[in-house]
Write a structure and sequence with these properties.
Layout (H helix, E strand, L loop, with lengths): L2 H5 L3 H11 L20 H8 L3 H8 L8 H10 L4 H14 L16 H10 L4 E5 L4 E4 L1 H7 L12 H7 L1 H6 L3 H14 L6 H13 L2 H7 L12 E5 L3 E10 L7 E8 L2 H12 L13
Helix pairs in contact: 3-5, 5-6, 5-12, 8-14, 9-11, 11-13
């Protein structure tokens, strides 16, 4: 079944199909007795997702078509859905609400010419300009070489949070993945504005796409997670690296920030110089944000 075929199906049919495709042993449950299908029983999925059997029944039968993102995310976690399946479920749940969904992320902020000039001057250091949603608006060659292997600059990762929380490559590149995930969610919280519809759309999307990896962090006080400290990277070509991200806020505002990833030891400094030497051309990711 293709993703297009799945999107055309309603939310209830999707949930039922996903449930019936998951074997009990895949989610740590005993096979138990005779089954009409090899998949999970409704009662088993309800327990795993923390919802009632009655509510799950209404969802699958199409009698309740407005589940919250938290419920959809919990069901996706319980079903151990992959990234593609989560995206399909997100689209189906939004369609059930009668609303469209944009998976491309919030609209990028306008980048003042002076701010872009500051970023240009930071090369050859690994540096990037980000908006309050964590969208990479521009970066130096060293930043691209350092963090592209983690998926941070992929078109399918509209924000840093998308990449870190949903891309398996991020867990390979960042040995201290939990600390990195804490940072990116805290940064999103710091830049949040109450009643911002773009932020609400992003939070809803990450609730489904990343599940508990996002929601548990989003529920914590932001003060618990600072930006200070050294991060380790396992770069596929440069090897083990230790960096210390520093944050600059241009013009004293809070809509944009520049992150500079400084080497934490001489070996990392040499490795970053080698990475930067591989591409001397500054690339602006969001060239239309001018």
């Amino acid at each position: 079944m293709t993703d297009g075929d799945r999107i055309d199906r309603d939310l209830g049919a999707l949930l039922r199909a996903y449930r019936e495709a998951v074997r009990p042993g895949d989610v740590g449950m005993p096979p138990g007795g005779r089954r009409r299908t090899p998949g999970l029983r409704r009662a088993e999925l309800a327990v795993l997702a923390g919802v009632s059997v009655e509510y799950l029944t209404r969802l699958e039968q199409g009698r309740d078509r407005r589940p919250s993102p938290a419920v959809v995310g919990a069901l996706a976690d319980a079903l151990r859905l992959g990234n593609d399946e989560r995206r399909v479920l997100l689209l189906a749940s939004k369609d059930a609400h009668g609303a469209g969904v944009c998976l491309a992320g919030p609209p990028a902020e306008v980048v003042p010419a002076g701010t872009r000039a500051v970023l240009d001057r930071l090369a050859p250091a690994p540096a990037a300009l980000l908006d309050r949603f964590g969208t990479v608006l521009g970066c130096t060659p060293a930043y691209r070489a350092l963090l592209a292997p983690a998926g941070l600059l992929d078109p399918g990762a509209p924000t840093v949070a998308h990449a870190v929380l949903t891309d398996p490559r991020a867990r390979e590149v960042f040995p201290d993945w939990d600390a990195v995930a804490d940072r990116v969610v805290a940064d999103l919280q710091r830049g949040s504005v109450p009643s911002d519809p773009a932020l609400g759309e992003l939070v809803d999307a990450l609730t489904v796409l990343a599940g508990a990896a996002f929601t548990e962090r989003w529920a914590r006080p932001v003060a618990d997670r600072g930006r200070d400290g050294v991060l380790r990277l396992a770069h596929p070509t440069a090897g083990p690296l230790r960096v210390e991200p520093q944050v600059l806020v241009p013009g004293g505002g809070d809509q944009l920030r520049i992150e500079v990833w400084l080497p934490a030891d001489p070996a990392t400094e040499r490795a970053l110089d080698d990475l930067a030497a591989g591409d001397r051309t500054l690339r602006v990711v969001r060239s239309d944000a001018s």
